[in-house]
Write a structure and sequence with these properties.
CATH topology: M1 Pyruvate Kinase, Domain 3
Helix content: 10-25%
Oligomer: single chain
Radius of gyration: 15 Å
Structural class: alpha+beta
Mean pLDDT: 94
Number of domains: 1
Order of helices and strands: EEEEHEHEEEHHEEEEE
Low-confidence stretches: none
Number of strands: 13
CATH class: Mainly Beta
Strand content: 25-35%
Shape: globular
Number of helices: 4
CATH superfamily: PK beta-barrel domain-like
Distance between the termini: 33 Å
Largest sheet: 8 strands, mixed
Length: 182
């Protein structure tokens, strides 16, 4: 059974806390991110990235995780839910990790997010829950690093997004460019 692509939950936090409380709705602002979220801005807002170079463009305005990952982690005994790993939007029915760089997600009536890359999670995952980092970042049988902790994007078109909203995927016209960490 296939699930119609939809928004399962939306979350934000005004400070740089690890988890983000769920909201009834969030407002995406073109070129900036999510109104009221600590990662809102044209330039990078992640603390470790600011320390490296505060003038970098913010390619991590919106963090998305697929709800199916949360289901799998719960089945393995991890205590996770929407927003607990810092994502802004939890989806259902979209293979987020299989999308190419430049894919666009139309969320609800107006908002459009362009996918910039994979979330590069940090040690905070293990502070939240032991062994979580190793479950979400590991090397496969070929030695390639696999990152499962969601994807990042920028806001191309603003709008309100709420649980239950539809998601439409638009693939880029160019060749499929595999997601890299951002």
């Amino acid at each position: 059974m296939t699930t119609t692509p939809r928004v399962e939950a939306v979350s934000l936090s005004a400070d740089h806390s690890f988890s983000k409380p769920q909201q009834a709705k969030i407002k995406l602002l073109k070129g900036l991110g999510i109104e009221g979220d600590a990662h809102l801005g044209v330039t990078v807002q992640h603390l470790s990235r600011i320390a490296q170079d505060p003038t970098q463009p913010n390619l991590r305005q919106v963090h998305l995780i697929h709800g199916e990952l949360l289901d799998a982690l719960k089945a393995e005994g991890f205590a996770v839910g929407p927003g607990t790993m810092g994502e802004n939007i939890t989806t259902r029915g979209v293979d987020l990790l299989g999308l190419p760089q430049g894919a666009r997600l139309k969320l609800g009536e107006d908002a459009v997010v362009e996918i910039t890359g994979l979330r590069n999670p940090c040690h905070q995952l293990d502070k939240y829950q032991k062994r979580l980092m190793g479950r979400l970042v590991f090397k496969d049988e070929t030695g390639e690093i696999v990152r499962l902790a969601g994807i990042m994007g920028i806001v191309l078109e603003g709008g309100m997004v709420a649980p239950g909203d539809s998601i439409a995927v638009e693939l880029p016209p160019q060749l499929h460019r595999k997601l890299e960490r951002v």
